[in-house]
Inverse folding.
């Protein structure tokens, strides 16, 4: 029996709504946890969440510790290919994986707006549980707060993730060296365009789907096949262009990219032309940029292509010496342009 | 030189405001990190944040791993005795400490409302840095998102914390046994009443201050002096009454409390009478409830009183056998009442 039940009634998961009592820490909070969160997160071999204390305690990890966090404020909450829940899990899993860490545990903080429908919350929680299962991580700790109507936008989720970095793995955004190859794992811009076309109600015949996915499996596969892997980064907010600028600055190098080798779907390219956007600045949620020694690039791309999430991997350019840390791109027409940092805000609340 | 600077101008930390570009992940985000966050969080021996990757990587920990998270949505952002920043650090530190963990690392996710003044954000960041120093933890990872004006309430902060539990320490909310002593570390209700009197602009001669503090030092001291310590919990949202109900249910016991032994300041008691509130349901942010074998209670209270944050510690009752898991209180007038779970919401957004 759930002793936290109020007047003996179950939560109405179909028509019910979040109210301020669900964030008060009393009986209503306990009921929300027992009837909505626990059935999805507290299952299988996840014995940690079940401890029911203010912290989860897990065994001593077997390697260096990795910690990462991401806030998620995407709008709309649901979009083709995912929702705020899949983003919240995969975003943090990927930030851990980019350091070569094996993601193990997640925490999730929910900030809910009074009036949020329990059905929407349940849908998001189900997505999170499925995404955690797919990534092989366990959600072990959480917190819920409720703010008054109009003081948040439905639902914000902040996840933090803990992982272990196996001995010998040393990936760092500062490790790119002139001559290295720059690789991407697949088509760019899908997530950003999926959100945008959903917002603008484009009504495409076949809607562009977000690429939202957990990359830790692909990364483990890459580490197995490429000992000279220097660094990984996922080109989320700001897209490929911004990520390459970050890495160039961090490594104290420049980069030269060939536009013709950068994979962008026709549908994304067409939608970008319609909106006047550049796909290289659009967010991705299931792609990565890798840098490795040039001699190993072909083998690495081949290994990536044998993994489902890397099947469209491609070498897109090389690292060069440049005191200005510029990212230059040879265009498909043979010209050259500078791929600058993202200026301003193209698409607010993309993740 | 900060290459992320826009048009070569520094952020105006006195008159500037957050806009959507600060959350876009591009140049403005980089500038916010470089000029506002980094000078306060990236300092001393905190070499982890400085890595500048999407995750922080730290040495292999020396014990079991503890993970906890808390969302902070307190209003107002600033109040006597603290602000949302001190709460965000101490709340998560305390959740780790209640499991007997030594807190090591924090992550922080900031959800900012467009229009938030940079001066307010800076004030909060300074508080967080000072609170982290005082607690001996390092903020190693963070994320910032910005939402449009009216879609959040100034500033929400979600922290997650990682700690290690030393071998031999086994605290668990399920471990209270009939006959055990129930102890609190000091005056109850200060935080809740500090927030409430700030909101209601009570204008007290000497304002009631929040008790917001990191309890990991006190906990380490208690563990040294009391091998029979069964469990710890901090009575935050829902106050002492709710915490005792949680623990009774988790341990499958009841509790009998003596009202006359429960420490509540005169000023808090008076303000509670004025508002018609019960101090035992008010939130605390620097207090803990401990349960230990009755034979060790006197020695534990003495040890707690020798620590600054436990100087008003007191035994307030005992654990009893009760299939209904009721918390009963003998009132100062000799009657008995049931201390029930918190119903409804007394004070929204108290933390």
């Amino acid at each position: 029996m759930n002793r936290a039940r109020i007047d003996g009634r179950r939560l109405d998961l179909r028509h019910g709504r979040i109210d301020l009592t669900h964030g008060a820490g009393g009986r209503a909070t306990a009921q929300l946890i027992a009837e909505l969160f626990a059935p999805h997160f507290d299952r299988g071999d996840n014995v940690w969440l079940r401890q029911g204390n203010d912290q989860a305690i897990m065994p001593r990890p077997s390697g260096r510790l990795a910690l990462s966090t991401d806030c998620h404020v995407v709008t709309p909450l649901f979009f083709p290919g995912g929702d705020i829940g899949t983003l919240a899990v995969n975003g943090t899993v990927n930030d851990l994986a980019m350091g070569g860490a094996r993601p193990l545990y997640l925490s999730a903080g929910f900030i809910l707006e009074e009036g949020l429908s329990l059905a929407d919350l349940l849908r998001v929680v189900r997505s999170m549980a499925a995404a955690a299962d797919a990534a092989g991580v366990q959600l072990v700790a959480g917190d819920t707060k409720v703010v008054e109507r109009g003081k948040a936008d439905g639902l914000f989720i902040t996840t933090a993730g803990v992982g272990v970095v196996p001995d010998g793995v040393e990936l760092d955004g500062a490790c790119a060296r002139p001559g290295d190859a720059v690789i991407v794992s697949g088509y760019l811009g899908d997530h950003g365009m999926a959100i945008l076309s959903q917002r603008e109600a484009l009504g495409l015949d076949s809607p562009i789907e977000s690429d939202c996915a957990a990359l830790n499996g692909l990364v483990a596969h890459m580490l197995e096949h490429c000992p000279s892997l220097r660094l990984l980064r996922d080109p989320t907010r700001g897209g490929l262009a911004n990520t390459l600028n970050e890495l160039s600055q961090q490594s104290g190098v420049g980069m030269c990219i060939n536009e013709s080798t950068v994979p962008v779907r026709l549908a994304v390219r067409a939608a970008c032309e319609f909106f006047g956007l550049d796909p290289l600045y659009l967010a991705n949620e299931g792609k990565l940029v890798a840098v490795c020694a040039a001699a190993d690039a072909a083998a690495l791309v081949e290994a990536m292509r044998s993994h489902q999430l890397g099947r469209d991997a491609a070498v897109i350019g090389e690292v060069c010496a440049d005191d200005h840390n510029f990212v230059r791109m040879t265009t498909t027409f043979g010209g050259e342009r500078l791929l600058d940092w993202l200026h301003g805000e193209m698409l607010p609340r993309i993740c």
Observations:
- Chain A touches chain B through 92 residues (CB under 8 Å).
- Chain A has a mean pLDDT of 95.
